[in-house]
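Action item from last week, closing it out:
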Amino acid sequence: MTIAFPLKHKVFVLTENHLKLMNRMWVGWNDDAYEGAPDVNLKRPYGNSDVVGDIAEIIDLEIPDSVRERMDEESDLFEDDAHYDWLETDEVREQCLKIHKETETAIQIVLSAQSFKTGYYVGDQYGNRWEWVSEEQYIINKLRGDYEYS
């Protein structure tokens, strides 16, 4: 099925990391208003309130050697707060929270396209209808100027 897009397409790359995060989301039912709707736990979207720590663990964010050297080899625990200090760096927080925010679009894509296939997806100007495109088609469309980047 090909979607006819009236304006420029939005582009999103769905990755394994998006799928890993969606797999660990805590989904519940929120009936605070109207007839209710499913929602992701706001305080503990991936099971714990340490959102950055959860994301780093789920996507297997590589721990730098300088931090790993401070681990207790027998117990796999850190001898001090090096791991937590690393998790709190601006670089790690930004990387984790960026992919966390991207899950909004990732969820919309898997629901709209009815697919968990990784790769390039293009959507309409509202971002609520998405379809997968091959890398080759993505490049052709990009060269034609068909895409809008947000």
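Closing note: The radius of gyration is 19 Å.
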